[in-house]
Amino acid sequence: MKWELYPLIRLIIPFTLGMIGANLFVSHMDLVVLFILCCAVLAFSFFFIKTSDIYRDSKFGVIAMCLFFLIGMTLHTEKYRHIEQGTPQDTTFCQGVLTEAPIEKARSWALTLEQEKGVHLLLYIGKDKVAPQHDSITFSTIQIGDTIFAKIRHLSATNTCENDTFKTYNTYLFHHGICATAYTPPNQWFVHSCQSSPSLFSTVESLQGKLHAIYDEHGINGEAGNIIEAMTIGQKAHLSKDTRTAYAHAGVSHVLALSGFHVGIIILIIQIFFLKPLLPLRWQWVSNLFIIAVLWLYAFIAGASPSLIRASIMFTILLLCQSVSREAISLNSCAIAFSVMLCINPFYLYDIGFQLSFASIVGISLLSQRFINAKTPRILQIIAITCICTLFTAPLAAYHFGSFSTLSIISNLALTLFVYLLMWSAILWWTFLWCDPINSFLTNLLNWTATTMSSITEAIASFPYATIEWHPNTLTTILCYTLLLTLTYFFTRHKQFATRL
Fold this sequence. Notes:
Number of strands: 10
Radius of gyration: 25 Å
């Protein structure tokens, strides 16, 4: 790899290492000291540029890497302190605005409440054993945007955990902006319904409910309907446990969650639908701006989930980079998207979806030029991209989920065409919602596609050794990616080495 062609890579590596270092030694980090160090290094770099030292370039590169290392540490520490300071000081009472629909647990209801400065609290409300039906009715009437008041019996900050059993879960909550968990007994809380203008959250929830009702009214229901809703409007609440398990064992869980995979398909469909490949190059940037607007409109309609917002941000940056460089996906555009998203939220670094998305995109940017060109048929492009994404995400999937699907490439190849068919059919379904004959045909097509996908997934998941338990540690995962990148480097440079020999 010619590093001079990818200057941003040399900067995001220390930038990322700075965040990792801050996470390891966060208790010793001081924002004031870090800010002073950043200013000092930045001032020294400006002074250094004016010198006439013949080794200026290499020394300036080292200074720039140190600066980005400190910036990474500063951003991560600031985010950590922001969430940490949001922990309620009053351990007997809490209040907050509901941002997600209540989730029913075995012995309680879980409510995510937004407090001041955007920090969240996870409140568990015990179930009423005397009148459980009353609980169900009560929580079904609560709407996103309502204010919850509760008397707390127990409060626990998520950045500190004495019991190692819950340490991983607490860390997960903290990295998702939840500063503490609290428990309140039944009948020790009350809700104040939102009387003002509808909030963004309540509007999205209301829109999701209307879309679900339209689907149900036109014959898209049952488990096939649940799969269609999950893949088109991001509504996964009604998916059965068996369906989730089958897709997980087949290595295609990402199909059920709106994320980068679906956003990429949607962008491709929009490009084809509006004939972007036929537009002159000088008008490509106008087309990209229109695609970005449609993408964000869809993200709002589909529920504005964190994974969908993250994917929309990433592809927005990639499309803007494409407007400038005429290259759809390159290491430079990936580096820009990566750094911008981490500046927005440094804790994206620990998000599984974020890691898997960029592992896929890096793999595509490194290997796509080797396998894909203008003459490659579309079906072969899909197969090649599917294999590359599966290969580059396998170690991370095993690290996070403790298992490895041996048939994930087969299942991804088997389902990819069905996913394209389902997404295209869904767009046409909404387009011809007014025309009963066409809509009825598309309804049958959608139900058949979803049912066939489930049948294929269940068949693949039932094969012997379809899933192998594998729990690689951090070092093993790093070594796997080091080996993968090394083999990729030699494979992509094969012709150059053969010519030299």
